């Protein structure tokens, strides 16, 4: 089972690229929390904190495909350096707007947050797009599993670091440090891209018909993007459900504990899946993800009241093991389907689809929680996962063209 990981470690630059790509997304998991504390303390309103946080995410989603296409055509390294510096400076400015201006100026903060979101460095789409240029076969499947696993761990580590800085110092410092981490990590990632010879435009010897055609004309691309929307929606609805249940029972710390258990389950599942050889079955992995989400419905109130945190934790641990494998396989499939000259753009659209999933899941889960309770919100996540299964069944298998391994 360790053979694919040995293959990864043997390819020059892959460990360094994977490390810097992971660090380059750490800031994304902690920034929303720091921003929420900052704006809520400034305006006294969590609703306004949500509006401004949504503005930041909207900017990210709008610019994702544009940044991806630019990276494909003009090169990724220079773009990452430029956006990384602008984004770090932008977060520092956002941190001090509440210091400089009264809370009645919150619309300006929303506009500024949207603008900063436009400069979010495209580490995730670039990082996912380069792997088929370096790896093939089981090693390629493994790197996507490792990528998804490390992403899950960042979602556990990032908020904890941000919350610690908020509690120990203040939200302003937490947000400034988040921006500094973003800049430093993107600079490191850009340097690794140049060392690996991947910092320039995607090299092509000829523009084939598939490369000239629109990205959305490629069979399976739209279904892959929609699959990301539904997977992210389902996972966020589960996360919101756990947070709401923990608050309802008067033990908000349980939300963090259970979230960590969920992340650990995903990490273990991702590492095991990454060590398997052979072509992963996308539909099977999405079905397993559906089963893990559905198992939460009967262990939450009002179906099971009072609910047991131990039972919920067990379900999250086992069900979480299906998350990283499903996400990794979906990411890899999109990379196989997209033409080489449009691959980063495709992953930019994937970021947009994921952001849309966040935007849809937050109010939807809130409505279900208010009108039915945690098990109803978990049921909503099941519906999203079912749509994901139906889409996974429609995504064709694609065999990437053989690529040389860089030495």
Automatic annotation (TrEMBL):
It is found in: Cell membrane. InterPro entries: MFS (IPR011701), MFS_dom (IPR020846), MFS_trans_sf (IPR036259). Pfam families: MFS_1. This is MFS transporter. It is a multi-pass membrane protein. It comes from Kibdelosporangium philippinense. The lineage of its organism: Bacteria, Bacillati, Actinomycetota, Actinomycetes, Pseudonocardiales. Residues 219-407 form the Major facilitator superfamily (MFS) profile domain. The chain crosses the membrane at residues 33-63, 75-99, 105-131, 152-169, 175-193, 214-237, 249-274, 286-304, 310-334, 346-369, 375-393. The keyword Transmembrane helix applies.
